[in-house]
Model the fold of this input.
Amino acid sequence: MASSVVTVIKEQHREVDKLVKQVEAEKGDVAATLQRIYDMLKPHSDAEEDFVYPAIEKVEPETGEEVHDGTAEHHHFLGLLTELLNQEPGGPGFDGAVAAFAAELRHHVEEEEADLLPALQENMSRSDLEAMGERFVKATTG
Ligand SMILES: [Fe+2]
Ligand SMILES: [Fe+2]
Done:
């Protein structure tokens, strides 16, 4: 059975959070983990902007402002992540930069799950949610 787009997005959030926790704990190859985070978050954010956020605005036009905030937040945390990728793990300022990125990402994920995704859940049919879920999986896993 196909998964709803809401489930797919939340599962990817949990996967990314596990990796962020590894970076925070300085477990394993931190630079490689940061690269994996980027490789997951970039297509995830692009797919949201491409067809998930527009669908949310369509079913609940009053969420428009939050959808725009969401897009701005993607640019912000991906920018912080790109800076991290260019820094030496353990070097000066690295921990602070990790903390700033993690805080920004968690704030975004919390708001997305609390304020944006429920609009889809409440307004789209099960089959439409599953079709979008499949499209999201394709867009993010190649
Ligand atoms: Fe997301
Ligand atoms: Fe997002």
Q: What stands out?
A: The CA atoms of residues 24 and 98 lie 7 Å apart. The helical segments are 5-24, 30-59, 64-85, 94-123, 126-141.
